[in-house]
Structures are given as C-alpha cells and as structure tokens.
Design a protein that fits this description.
about 180 residues, 10 helices
C-alpha cells in the first residue's frame, strides 16, 4: 500500500465520529481537503500523507511515535511541526507559538501548514456566506482574533521561499477579513 493510501486509512479510523466545528460535516473531509490541496500543488507523497495526518496527534489517540513507526521520520517531523503545543496553554500562547515557529520551519512544514489554513479559511468563508457574523461564535476567539491569527500566518509563512499556495492563502485572508 502506498503512503498516501495508508495515511487515508489511518486518518479515517483515527478521526471516526469526529465532526467539523459546530457542524454535522465529518471531520475527515478537512484532512482529505488538505491532502488534495497538497497534491494539486505538486507536493511530495510524504507531504501529502503528513497533511492527511496533520491533526491526528492533536485530536486523536495516535502519537508521534505511532506516526514515526508507520510512516517514517519525515512524515512524523512534518506532523509534529504542524501540531500545536499542549492544550494547557491559552489560545493566544498556542497561536503565538505557531506564528513564531512557522517563520523558521522547513518548506515541507510550511506547505502542510499553509494547506491546512487555506482549507480552514475557505471553509470559514463559505460558512460566513451562509451564517454572516454569527459564524464567529463557533470559535474560542471571535473575528478580530481570527483576523489577527490568519494575517499573522501569512506574514510568518512569507519569511521563507515563496510558494503559490501562500498566494492563495493571502487572497483568502483578504477576502474574509478585508
């Protein structure tokens, strides 16, 4: 079985019965969407697999050791780089950590993180067109904090070599937050 198919199977089992924030949409649609974005942008099979697995360590019972054992060091390193520090930290501290980390992250981590955020913001923009301002009640922090975070992501991801997916994220941030 190739690494992408294996990642799809692993993520499907790991995220079973999870849904997207405040919706009935199966959570797995998000990680599939991230994988598709990475494939569309010509990323490596390891990046695509990591994109599909990017939330497993944060949101399921899988550990980095499980990922390393089943998918290798490279995929595990990308997943680790896309995972926030422990949930014991405040939302602000976790987001500040992410913004600082991405300034110096490998291209592979930056690609997967960008695909994750691009898929998220496109989903938010679609939901915003249906829900309007009430969308922001779904989040631990409202529209202003989301705008701060997504604008910060664009800045942090822009520190390294440019890549086309980042241009798409910039456009989506501008479209949603102005």
């Amino acid at each position: 079985m190739n690494i992408i198919d294996k990642a799809i199977q692993t993520a499907t089992i790991a995220h079973a019965n999870q849904t997207r924030k405040s919706s009935d949409l199966p959570y797995i649609t998000h990680v599939y969407g991230v994988g598709i974005l990475l494939a569309q942008h010509g990323c490596s099979p390891e990046e695509i697999a990591a994109g599909i697995l990017h939330d497993t360590v944060e949101d399921t019972d899988l550990t980095l050791e499980d990922i390393k054992k089943d998918f290798g060091e490279q995929v595990a390193a990308i997943v680790e780089g896309c995972s926030e520090p422990g949930k014991s930290l405040s939302w602000e501290k976790r987001k500040e950590h992410t913004l600082e980390f991405l300034k110096h992250a490998s291209d592979e981590i930056r690609h997967v993180a960008c695909a994750d955020k691009l898929h998220n913001i496109r989903s938010m923009r679609e939901d915003y067109s249906n829900l309007g301002e009430s969308l922001w009640t779904r989040f631990k922090r409202g529209k202003e904090q989301q705008a701060w975070y997504y604008s910060g992501l664009v800045i942090s991801l822009s520190v390294g070599a440019p890549f086309p997916m980042l241009d798409e994220l910039k456009v989506e941030v501008e479209r949603l937050f102005g």
